[in-house]
Input
Amino acid sequence: MAKVYLAGGCFWGLEKFMSGISGVTSTQVGYANGNAAHPTYEDVCNRNTGHAETVKVQYDPDILALPFLLNLFFDVIDPTSLNRQGGDRGTQYRSGIFYSEPLDIPIIEKSLADLQKRYDKPIAVLVEPLLNFYPAEDYHQKYLDKNPSGYCHIGRDKFEKAAGAIVNPADYSLPDLTSLQKVLSDSQYKVTQKGDTEPPFQNEFWNYYQSGIYVDITTGEPLFSSSDKFESGCGWPSFSKPIDPNVIREKIDTSQNTVRTEVKSRVGEAHLGHVFQDGPMKMGGQRYCINSAALRFVPKNQMEKEGYGYLINLVI
Output
């Protein structure tokens, strides 16, 4: 098993999140990179020991790649916040990646460089060798399993997202704007980059029901499976859920004198459509109403060839 030590605010929530990721074999909370041996929680909080609340994450690298794990970590912290996550402030809540294997350094540095491209403010996640790690008291271990209603600065909906994480964003990238303009049609460009909406009943996939997956037209990141597609009568492709809950970004949209929830892709940040709560209850009750122009369809018999073989079991 490989291991990495991650700090990102209160370790109760981060441990719970990490423990739900497929490929993570064990987690342990503790105090890392401080200046005192065997500190207690009281020491760390009140005696300036310099430790960070940290989660030791052991994982199977044959199942879970480090870049994928780090991207999931970045999704549950504010990577631009210095010595603060949620309502917790102080150096014990600093964000950091503490490595014990020097070969991980270039992987970590590249992940942070890619992350910086998504933010205008500088990334405040420390990268340091692990100098020390002391396990926290027993009552801190698996705290949220023992206290389900306990404090957590991470949104609890993200625990479910951790369990459903199967698509590695590091496998996909967004071409520059000039390249996109060359490869996308006028409609595809206006929908994905300008937030336009194509006409209902006059688009490629509104009544298309072949077996396969639908991927982001701008990056190739897989978004939806044909198994979750249904006829809604709205004139656009409708899905009950994404392939992986992490591949979708949601944003409040107040245009057109109404309040809706816009849906964008994770890596490409392409406008896809909107999500509504009027889908079939037997499929979860959600309706992802998506523009065909934002999608490319990959037939089931071509998925292996195009690098999506790991998702075949999701397609009926």
Q: What stands out?
A: The chain has a mean pLDDT of 96. The domain at 171-314 is CATH 2.170.150.20 (Metal Binding Protein, Guanine Nucleotide Exchange Factor; Chain A).
